[in-house]
Amino acid sequence: MKPSSVVLCGLALLLLALADVSQAARLKDVVDIEGVRENPLTGFGMVVGLNGTGDSSAAFTGQSLTMMLERMGISTPQGVKVKNIASVMVTASLPPFARQGGKLDVTLSSLGDAKSLQGGTLILTPLKGADGRIYAVAQGPVSIGGFAAEGAAQSVQKNHPTVARIAGGGIIEREVSFELNQEYQLQLSLRNPDFTTANRVVKSINGLFGEPLATARDSGTIQLNIPPTYQGKVVDFVARLENLQVDPDQAAKIVVNERTGTIVMGENVRVSTVALAHGGLSIKITESPQVSQPNARSGGSTVVTPKTDIVAKEQEGKVLEMESGVTLGELVRGLNAIGVTPRDLIAILQSIKAAGALQADLEIL
């Protein structure tokens, strides 16, 4: 058996072993509470103190520097260029229920042609939300978690030097108003919408409290009424819900990444009756020029004659018959029996799907 087939078979056995384990998951890992989410923040900033690795030809960096110095009462000539400065886009996520004075981690990404942000310091940068309002400000020394250095003929780099991070570099200035304890109703959103999963979640919640509190509006939304005993104490109510065990259902799906040769198959994948033949054709072409060199003082010229050797080899094709209702494990074991590689398996799955024998969605990345 080929090494790649051994790996594929081992992976299939691991998946089958995991499939035997209980599929129950905590409710907090299956649903999100509507309104309890992060909010993205962005801002334009400048990193100073670079050792000649900043922007060299980005016009907006010079303009931003001029405007910043003018606000400080310092006049500068137009078109100033300073390689110790870099323009960056600053991004962060405002967590739910964040309060004023709290801190955020911020990420900096170079906008110009800076070579590295190593050793720089971010100048005070306002961070705005989608509504254009300022929710946080960021400032501080940056960390790129690597380095970059170069000489006249060689360079060395570790990690990505034009993206940096400041741990706790953002300070929250404005809060997003959301009073959870004043709610009388909650909306639960399934992370993977599915009618069967939604139905199971509703039955689990109603069974836990002994009354019809939950109702499925569709495959991805569950409406949940807060019982009178928990009104004003919604945090306690949600904490009790979070650890509720539910059994999420999975659609039959195969995800294929052709660039990396990665294949992930769900346990519900089934194959109808089909006969499969697999074989490969390899062609090897070798170029070996023949050089004819004349004797000294003969007056002749060197002649180069190309010589091409072509060898074509076709592997022996094997026919494998799969009966109706073949499971994931049987499919993988059968394909390994004919010695397929992961990349061969991608082509085989596409062909089975085209024949209408694959009872699953085939998603190609």
Q: What descriptors fit this protein?
A:
3 domains; single chain; Aspartate Aminotransferase, domain 1; 365 residues; 25 strands; six-stranded antiparallel barrel; alpha+beta; four-stranded antiparallel β-sheet; 6 helices
* Strand-pairing-aware structural class: alpha+beta
Question: What is the topology, as strand order, of the major beta sheet?
Answer: 3-4-5-10-7-6
Main pleated sheet: 6 strands, antiparallel, barrel
Structure summary, number of beta strands: 25
- The proportion of residues forming helix, as a percent range, comes to 10-25%
Number of helical elements: 6
Question: What count of domains describes the coordinates?
Answer: 3
Q: Give the N-terminus to C-terminus distance in angstroms.
A: 28 Å
Ranges where pLDDT stays below 50 over 5 or more residues in a row are 3-10, 13-21
Descriptive notes:
There is one protein chain. It is built from six helices and 25 strands. It is α+β, with helices and mostly antiparallel strands. The chain folds into three domains: 3-20 and 253-364, no CATH class; 25-35 and 179-246, Aspartate Aminotransferase, domain 1, CATH 3.90.1150; 39-172, no CATH class. β4 and β5 (103-110) form a beta hairpin. The two termini are 28 Å apart.
